[in-house]
Amino acid sequence: MQGVAATTLLLTIVFSGFSAQGQSDPCPPVIAYGDTALCVPGPVQLNASPGFTNYHWSPAIGLSDTTIQNPVATFSGVITYVVTATGFGPNLMANPDFSLGNVGFTSGLTYSTVYTPGNYYVAPLFFTYSWPEMIDHTPTSDGFMMAVDGSLSEKMLYQQTIAVDPGTDYNFEFWCTRADVHQPIFEIHFVGDVTGDVIMATTPGIPYAPAPLWEWDAYGVPSWNSGPNSSVTIHIRNLELDYVGNDFALDDFSFRTTCTVSDSVTILVGNIAANITGPLNICEGQAATLTANGGQLVNWSTGETTPSLLISPVTVTTYTAIVSDTTGCADTVSHTVAVFPFLNAGVTSDSVICLGEPGTLTAQGGTMFSWSTGETGETVSVTPTTPTTYTVIVSDAGKCADTAAYEVIPVDCSIILEMPNIFTPNADGLNDNFVPIKMNNIVRATLFIFNRWGQLMHETTDLLKGWNGKFKEDNCSDGVYYWVVEYTDIQETQKEIKGFLSLVRN
Fold this sequence. Notes:
Blueprint: E1 11-19, E2 32-33, E3 44-45, E4 47-48, E5 54-58, E6 72-73, E7 77-88, E8 110-111, E9 119-123, E10 145-149, E11 156-163, E12 169-177, E13 185-192, E14 196-204, E15 216-225, E16 231-238, E17 247-269, E18 275-277, E19 281-283, E20 288-293, E21 297-300, E22 308-311, E23 317-324, E24 330-340, E25 346-349, E26 359-364, E27 368-371, E28 379-382, E29 388-395, E30 402-408, E31 416-418, E32 422-423, E33 438-440, E34 442-450, E35 456-460, E36 470-471, E37 474-475, E38 479-489, E39 494-503
Parallel strand pairs: 8-9, 19-24, 32-39
Antiparallel strand pairs: 1-17, 2-4, 3-6, 5-7, 7-17, 9-10, 10-17, 11-16, 12-15, 12-17, 13-14, 13-16, 18-20, 20-22, 21-23, 23-24, 25-26, 26-28, 27-29, 29-30, 31-33, 34-35, 34-38, 36-37, 38-39
């Protein structure tokens, strides 16, 4: 975040202490954190110290969730949020995960590696059996757990004595696997040095079906107040006396103080919602206006202080504005304008466009096209009957569109070549040369004259000059001759016509 006035109160953290008692500091304080620069629009991320079991934020106004560690606050103005967290102190039990072996507790069962009713064993195995499904609840380097084969008589399963602070809340928990036939029935006793023996819970084990065999489940006493006691003996018995399938494992005992701590955070969220409106792209040589919105005061990176800024960049340029309001809150926003070059649009025709016949125009210079005829392809078919100008707007990503115009003057494309059947080369100025009577749209042509014996008498590529009735420098005699014209028309079509002619001099 940027632009926060130094004189504006942004964040106040008030440590509210914690309510808990114990033999040592049972819970660390919870610290509520907020954004340290909040004079900007939008939500604010709140955070509390991690490591607690439950969180509760109040008031609920503007919060995304009141029960999580890091809710989001959407609020404008000044508000104080208080977070109350519930957690646990350190584990007071000795050897809680059996990592030290068979120490720190007592049992009425017999400690042995022999898998038989009434025995227990501490190891990474179930007695001496390695079953892949039966593993330590929270595997460590040793993997130890307490394997139990149910007893035929009611016996004390597990017992440990712990010093406690009077008048303090505690939480007790342990984990047990599911047995394959008969589940244990746990009778949990708390024996206080003052209040004596109290049965806190009688809880049957959870059957393994449909869950997998040997799955771990948590048991215990959620809350116990020590009252006048300075020590307590936790005593667990198994009331299930049928030994068939009454096999299970215990692990991860915990006995901890419970505590509640709180803290508060005060935030100030301004009403700044700064933004810059205006084009993101501009064509070479053009001007545009950018406008900064969201506050009363504007300072542009160009030095201007008015909300609107006239720009005419020659290359990609980023414009920055600091927008502030009367509360001292400010926001910095940027707007980048790219400068695009103009395209060089053009139109070509693939050939002469004949009157009343379709022709093709092709646009160049881009990838997108918009013709005056309505078509949007690179090429367009036209059939003009009068001189017509066609326009196309050519565009491309990252460039400025250009317009090209092309005038089509339709041509009479009829192909005509008519030759006479007689001519009189007598130098009277009338019909002295064998030339076409009519000729239209002939591009190239070659005239061949043969006598009646097939001898080539004359050849020319100038049809308008034709044949003067001579063979070399001598006049040819009257008679019938054979002619051939090979020609190419305006549409580049090659053809041949032939016929007979009469040469008459008198």
